[in-house]
């Protein structure tokens, strides 16, 4: 058997030298190394040998296989080289041809929208402050005036990582982080970032989306400051003719809490499919920072006051650019993305 193996190896190496192109190489590979190839068959026949000869034969076969594989690789490389040399000699490969141009990319619609928002708030003196996507229960809920079992927690369907850790459901926990970092300085920041909700994905709801939280803390800050800031934002982002409407609302971390609406950009208030015939579009939840939240951040609520707001990013972009399905943002379809 060992003799047959040596013979096979010699024969295979000789045959390899004869292979002149990739078809011949492939045939050779199939014939010697393939599943039904000569070497594989030989390895299978090990069972016919007396027990004591099997290990040595197995080893020899594997060595032969390694030799043949290496020889095959070398021959394939050599053939490729030869072919390239031939083509170069014939001049069919013109290395001076210009390369294929790579189309320039551009910023994603979400990034563009975020940057527009940053620019508007920067002009009003707001800095950008970033905080983590993975948060603790305490920061996402507890310190925002929602202790464990507080019913308002149900407003946010949550992706839990453990009993204490979660993917933030809103950018509001960043309020606590920036307050604790900056206290006792006054604050004027926006906190952009991704939020996560354990929600059914529909044309209007994604389980990942952006928000841009806003927070101002200082002396003598009032609701008038909040309303004027958001009105100014709406006019700069959507157009100077916009009107803003305020409704009372509830959030555990603001008191009083409001919902900010804007007259519909499509129908100007007459009623259409976008505003569901109400004439108004909701743009953000907001309110005056709750005394408990100020205190948790290190600020004495008798001396300090503040406002906060939390608009989304994709929905404003949907309104501005008339996009009717939020799933398009992260569907990675270039036909959609190239339009912006
Ligand atoms: N965090 C709220 C949400 O995701 C939005 C919000 C409401 C943010 C009121 C605020 C606020 O800062 O004051 O639904």
How would you portray this structure in words?
By secondary structure, this protein is α+β, with helices and mostly antiparallel strands. The chain has helices spanning about 1-20, 20-30, 40-45, 55-90, 110-125, 135-140, 175-180, 225-240, 290-295, 315-320, 335, and strands at about 125-130, 135, 165, 185-195, 210-220, 245-250, 255-265, 280-290, 305-310. Helix 1 (about 1-20) runs parallel beside helix 4 and helix 7 packs across helix 9 (about 290-295). The radius of gyration is 34 Å and the shape is elongated. About 30% of the residues are buried. Bound molecules: 3,4-dihydroxyphenylalanine. 3,4-dihydroxyphenylalanine binds near residues 286 and 287.
Short note summarizing the structure:
This protein is of the alpha+beta class.
Count of helical segments? 11
Question: What small molecules accompany the polymer chains?
Answer: 3,4-dihydroxyphenylalanine
Total strands: the figure is: 9
What share of residues are in beta strands? 15-25%
Q: What distinguishing features does this structure have?
A:
single chain, 340 residues, alpha+beta, seven-stranded mixed sheet, two-stranded antiparallel sheet, elongated, binds 3,4-dihydroxyphenylalanine
What's the structural blueprint in terms of helices and strands?
Layout: H1 2-18, H2 22-32, H3 38-44, H4 54-90, H5 109-123, E1 127-128, E2 134-136, H6 137-140, E3 165-167, H7 173-182, E4 187-196, E5 208-218, H8 223-238, E6 244-251, E7 254-263, E8 280-289, H9 291-297, E9 305-310, H10 314-321, H11 334-337
Parallel strand pairs: 1-4
Antiparallel strand pairs: 2-3, 4-5, 5-9, 6-7, 7-8, 8-9
Helix pairs in contact: 1-4, 7-9
